[in-house]
Design goal:
574 residues; FAD/NAD(P)-binding domain; 4 domains; 5-stranded parallel beta sheet; 17 helices; homodimer
């Protein structure tokens, strides 16, 4: 019997994973990987840390955990896999099962026959077609070569101002590198209304924005790039629809789209999001051809709709499934719930599932609830505040999404991983409330803040908890036409400056005294209870509601969420 | 209509939770909580951190996150709940629905009528009946008063040596406090064969033991306490069945058992583990009486068998369910998967579900698999090693348990929480392999070590991965009758001292060279591949197996697990 010939197009993440796993399962398969680039099998997600000098040597991004560089020789000797770099797959002849390839050094063309073909063609930068893109010192950080060029510019050129276009994860990671490591005066420009728009609702994304501003980064959202201007071929200015920014260095990180050109040309099915269509065995519409990673679109296990999820972690997991199926194992890849984490200076932000906006767009009657609480027992030194948000389908109480912000340690990771693990099982808010998260005081509270989030969502759905978002509450407070009265349940000392600043709109009744002082409150006004975190204001709102105050609301997240969102109620009038 | 009268016996964790939640749901219920102790509503799990001075003031353990002391007045004013401390529940008259109570100060007896009764009687120390228990400076740390006495002794007495009897979580947390904060020469004595015996299998518990030894703590396992000896009424020596230890201070932390005496006397059903029997609404055999927390036994959602899980986190979650059901909500508490985490010096250990030993005892054909990997991308500074173990049912591939050890940050928490969240859904190893854990380089690898654990378990079940535990491999290496040959796939420099130490039993073929050097290896011998972590040794074992080496095994965990388990192959002969 002839050994199986497997050709893989793409050698960054999914391609090498398929090759290595397949080698272990089929000792005598002939495995060939082609890639148009000269760099192969590198950790592209590490590029921002290479730019930040946390990873000083680019070879580390191309090395195994045991310090072997994953080059052509490594794949040949250790894995028995042939890798052809600087080789472009030009066309697929599905009838003859042949891939036509071109050697980009010599221009020579040749044919690679296959029994199974794997498309790992990745994604391409989705760069807005603006004038000036071709100027020097304009970068895209979508591949390692571009990152090397960018770092070289940082080291060798005189750069004072940087503009990052695109407030997604990569844009913000690069922003931190530029502002923190290289001390550049850095500005982020995002076209949509808030940062990280695919991953977070506006109220949690506000925490990312406040984090950046606190570190001296300027952030302009809802602002579109019009053109880049330069002198002597080098970029000097960024022009948006709102302003002109000085910039000796520009990074355009406006996202990526699936690179499905080769598949499309071969007549393979492509989905509504532009990614290659695959089944649960990651086969394309031609069962001899598999695809995975950034070039495909998946089914969301939350909404049931197509989703594009360009993540190195998914590429690795999918690669293993492709290899297993080629080797004859009965495997399946059900789809994607979506999970995400990013470090921004001293904050971590994480998400799983969909945002409220996405849930509503997918047809759910989606509500959201937010809590603020500690990441470990409140009596432990080193505790920090977590902000957690849940997106819930009102009728079924099913959890659709989760968002979190906290310190830049693993506290946020510990919560998002639990939710991400559960999401495909369509948990209810009650299941989140009862989650058996591991507990001891150095790591969690007895009732973890994530449990509290599930419980709070249940209280909201049951009508026990009646809340107002910080944004709405602040707007009412500042609106002369509103009848709102803030009932501050903190201690008197904390409340005093607010009472002075908002006469007639802010009163103080410390939490413990509220049940005995109800007579002091006007029944006809809209009452907003507020405390530090939202716990006492919730309990106080329950007391008010139970005692016939028809328009009593708790301000979710308390003073803490205001502080973390960059809202200062005591600042001079805007 | 008369308001509902609810009496709660026990005011530490579950009792106050029931009271406070119930108040929010039923504004006019009459809620009374009795407790024989003078301290109420305290965080008992924080006691070791109080002893360690990380929590300097005991009032912090009795305070809310907003610094209000949860005393009788707090419950009356803020919660509208009557708390009667120093009041013992003497008997329950179920016919008349009355609890007879005794005021421990005055000796006066009275009766509390109830519509619903909640038993939160907790647990009692399971102290071995050895002579000398009554000596001064012998402590049990099972309640706050005892912890206050212990800390006073630490501050005021001349103490050089401490012995902690019991190597469970509380014993080890107290050990750290005594050895680290108070610089006592501390010894742990555990009756069973390894530390943390209810939570970890021996191989992972060995990491806890090595951590303690590295910090100067002596550990004696498989050793029973016979008696305590003293002079002038104070303890001076601990006598075990193996040795006599000097000890001016002794802490007995040999576990707890459910305090079901009141329930039993009232004729309520008690289960095989001695805990009160409850249904999924946490009602006892008398539906007007609820119970939860340490005094009940639960059903394991993994084994389906009764389980005793005395955890403050469960008590809080159960308390909420009891209050909800009393208030008429359609709630249920399905049971317990078991989740756990402990900090021991610079290590964290965590677990969920059952150990291999427990799984086998419950009738499963349970296998275990262990991997070693980084907690974040291997190219990131600050990375650390995680040791993860999975317990799996061979036939169904269902995951039954998880154990982890790593640095004392939240990296271990982030993995155990994901598994704990999933366990009730009976995940297979494939589901662990495909878990969508959140990824970016500062927080995880693209293929998280937890994914690798699931994948490795699948490889084991499929027969692709053939492994030998570190303990078995080392035993073979040191057994003159064994034919074992270690194939060290590390670099030559790393392998050299082992080759010198184990002539004829250790050879070096670096990983990348192995496929080309198979002819050098003897086909008739037992080959054990070894590397740093287990990755290269796995791949090398696959190559050997595919090439007809019938007795090729990979040593799981590599040199890393040896180091973390305190096994030094280069140490002088034992």
């Amino acid at each position: 019997m002839l050994s199986m010939r497997v050709v893989i197009v793409g050698a960054v993440a999914l391609g090498p994973k398929v090759a290595c796993r397949l080698r272990r399962l089929l000792a005598d398969a002939e495995i060939t990987v082609v890639d148009q680039d000269r760099f192969i099998s590198y950790g592209g997600c590490g590029i921002p840390y290479y730019l930040a000098d946390e990873v000083p040597d680019e070879n580390q991004l191309m090395s195994t955990s045991f310090h072997a560089v994953r080059d052509v020789r490594f794949f040949r000797e250790a894995k028995g896999v042939t890798v052809l770099p600087r080789t472009r797959a030009v066309a697929i002849d599905r009838e003859r099962r042949i891939v036509a390839v071109e050697d980009l050094e010599s221009g020579a063309r040749s044919e690679l026959p296959y029994d199974r073909l794997v498309l790992a063609t990745g994604s391409v930068s989705s760069v807005p077609p603006v004038p000036g893109r071709e100027l020097a010192n304009v970068f895209f950080v979508h591949n390692l070569q571009n990152a090397l060029d960018l770092k070289k510019a940082l080291i060798t050129e005189e750069i004072g101002h940087a503009v990052v276009v695109g407030g997604g994860a990569i844009g913000l990671e690069v922003t931190e590198a530029l502002a923190d490591t290289w001390n550049l005066k850095t500005t982020v420009v995002e076209r949509l209304g808030h940062l990280l728009p695919q991953l977070f609702d506006a109220n949690v994304a506000a925490i990312a924005e406040a984090t950046l501003r606190a570190k001296g980064v300027a952030v302009h959202t809802g602002e579109s790039l019009l053109r880049l201007e330069g002198e002597g071929g080098k970029v000097t200015r960024v022009v948006t629809d709102r302003r002109t920014l000085p910039a000796e260095l520009v990074v355009i990180a406006t996202g990526v789209r699936p690179n499905a050109a080769l598949a499309r040309a071969a007549g393979l099915a492509v989905g509504p999001l532009g990614g290659i269509t695959v089944n649960e065995q990651l086969q394309t519409s031609d069962p001899a051809i598999y695809a995975g990673g950034d070039c495909v679109e998946m089914t969301s296990l939350v909404t049931g709709k197509p989703v594009f999820a360009p993540l190195g972690s998914l590429a690795n997991r999918e690669g293993r499934v492709i290899a297993d199926h080629i080797a004859g194992k009965p495997v399946r890849f059900d789809g994607v719930v979506g999970s995400f984490i990013v470090k921004i200076f001293d904050s971590a932000l994480a998400a799983a599932g969909v945002t409220q906006e996405q849930a509503v767009a997918a047809g759910f009657d989606a509500v959201r609830v937010l809590v603020v609480g500690y990441d470990r027992a409140h009596f432990m030194p080193g505790k920090a505040i977590l902000v957690l948000q849940l997106i819930v389908d009102r009728a079924t109480r099913r959890v659709l999404g989760f968002q979190a912000a906290g310190p830049a340690n693993d506290a946020v990771l510990a919560r998002v991983n639990a939710v991400a693990a559960l999401l495909k099982h369509a948990p209810t808010v009650e299941e989140i409330g009862q989650l058996e998260l591991a507990y001891s005081p150095p790591f969690a509270s007895a009732m973890d803040t994530l449990n509290a989030l599930g419980n709070t969502a249940g209280n909201l759905l049951d009508g026990l908890y009646r809340c107002m978002t910080a944004v709405d509450a602040v707007a009412a407070l500042r609106d002369p036409a509103s009848d709102v009265l803030f009932v501050d349940t903190n201690a008197a000392k904390s409340a005093a400056p607010y009472i002075e600043r908002y006469p007639g709109r802010w009163v103080n009744i410390p939490y413990q005294q509220l049940p005995g002082r109800l007579a002091e409150l006007p029944r006809e006004r809209t009452l907003v209870t507020i405390c530090d975190s939202g716990i006492r204001s919730f309990e106080s709102q329950v007391v008010l509601s139970a005692n016939g105050f028809a328009r009593a609301f708790a301000m979710e997240g308390g003073l803490n969420i205001l502080k973390r969102s960059g809202i200062d109620l005591l600042a001079p009038c805007p």
